[in-house]
Write a structure and sequence with these properties.
Order of helices and strands: EHEHHEHEEEEEEHEHEHEHEEHHH
Number of helices: 11
CATH architecture of the largest domain: 3-Layer(aba) Sandwich
Largest sheet: 10 strands, mixed
Strand order of the largest sheet: 2-1-3-14-13-4-7-12-10-11
CATH topology of the largest domain: Isopropylmalate Dehydrogenase
Number of domains: 2
Structural class: alpha/beta
């Protein structure tokens, strides 16, 4: 039997609610299998925890070491707390949001240099455009993955400014693009494309699109030049290029062209939030933050304070993240038959629930609760396991 230790960080706002549903599905899978054994280590963290501890800490001080030295993977809910009544975000005196030390602490501290963000539209999922739920895109045309560099760019700790007489007069953000950072994430994207082995929905070709702004910025010129060094080493994968501004309209207009895309940090953050519209909502969008040794998995949406405790948020992004976690663990531990089949089973269960169209949260045009969605997916997992 394979045993895996998972650190669980529910975080702020709706985080605990959506994480509960992902754990419900993972425990159902565990119970239906005689080959999986999960140990979940759960810790409070984030802005609300910071307030609870009298503004002393964002998370218990031992948690980072547990993540680094003991955990096989990390499942994160959402970070950051803004009071729905006052609109004030829990921040340090410097103005920095409480919770970023957790998020960036894990990404940088564990060297999680590749952010994996799938964009896939499932059958019978409507999209909300201009206040109406419509079905504009054909599901078979929306299935690509963005690999976002995750440890440098504008999110690296290179911020500064001029504070004169107690007033900030100048603020600076330096974008850091390094050869090492670009090389490893671009190589990761090509390797991911090879393992994914799906190709573009349009023509079936394996394709890695380099997304940058190399016609303007020096960092992107370096990024693209390194892409051009690496691409010839993968002769079965087609080279492709897009400037970030054009890319944002191309993924909406012709998403079927894309297979795997590789992009610098902040550009990738923004573009993949836009891409979530293609798959129905942010409530469907999951991500994995991975490096050579460690992996953290999370939904890409925030903590949604105004919905906290109302049991209405879509938990599917977090359940998808749990599926991605199993897929990554299967690759990392060479445990394909057990973990990969579990990951595939969770995704299949989600597909079945969506296809039936009976259980949907408000963001997909329904009125089901968070827990009803988790229950429905868990039931499908149990049914699929029984029929194996």
């Amino acid at each position: 039997m394979s045993k895996y230790k998972i650190v669980v960080l529910p975080g702020d706002g709706i985080g605990p609610e959506i994480v509960d549903e992902a754990l419900k599905v993972l425990k159902t899978l565990e119970g239906a299998s005689n080959k999986l054994d999960f140990e979940f280590l759960q810790f409070e963290c984030g802005g609300q925890y910071y307030l609870k501890t009298g503004r002393k800490e964002e998370w218990p001080p031992e948690v980072f070491d547990i993540c680094k030295n003991e955990a096989d993977a990390i499942l994160l809910g959402a970070i950051g707390w803004t009071d729905p009544k006052t609109g004030k975000t829990v921040s340090y005196p410097s103005g920095k949001m409480v919770g970023l030390e957790i998020l960036f602490g894990l990404r940088f501290g564990l060297d999680l240099y590749a952010n994996i963000r799938p964009t896939k539209l499932y059958e019978n999922v409507p999209h909300k455009i201009s206040g109406e739920f419509r079905q504009i895109w054909d599901p078979k045309n929306v299935d690509f993955v963005t690999i976002r560099e995750n440890t440098e760019g504008l999110y690296a700790d290179t911020h500064g400014g001029l504070n004169r007489g107690g007033q900030i007069e100048v603020a600076t953000d330096v974008r850091l693009i390094t050869r090492k950072g670009a090389e490893r994430v671009i190589k990761f994207a090509f390797d991911y494309c090879t393992r994914r082995n799906k190709g573009s929905p349009k023509d079936g070709k394996l394709r890695v699109t380099c997304v940058d702004k190399s016609n303007v910025t020096a960092g992107c010129k370096l990024f693209r030049s390194i892409y051009q060094e690496i691409a010839p080493k993968y002769p079965n994968i087609q080279e492709d290029y897009a400037f970030i501004d054009a890319f944002t309209q191309w993924i909406v207009r012709t998403p079927e062209w894309f297979d795997v895309c590789v992009v610098a940090n902040m550009f990738g953050d923004i573009a993949t939030d836009l891409a979530a519209v293609l798959q129905g909502s942010l409530g469907m969008a999951a991500s994995g933050n991975v490096g050579d040794k460690h992996g953290m998995f999370e939904p890409i949406h925030g903590s949604a304070p105004k919905y906290t405790g109302k049991n209405v948020i879509n938990p599917l992004a977090t359940i998808f993240a749990a599926s991605m976690m199993l897929d990554w663990l299967s690759m990392k531990n060479n445990d394909e038959p057990t973990l990969k089949s579990g990951a595939d089973m969770i995704e299949k269960a989600i597909q079945l629930v969506l296809n039936e169209g009976k259980i949907r949260t408000y963001d997909l045009g329904g009125n089901s609760s968070t827990s009803q969605v988790g229950d429905a997916v868990s039931a499908k997992v149990k049914e699929l396991a029984r029929n194996m």
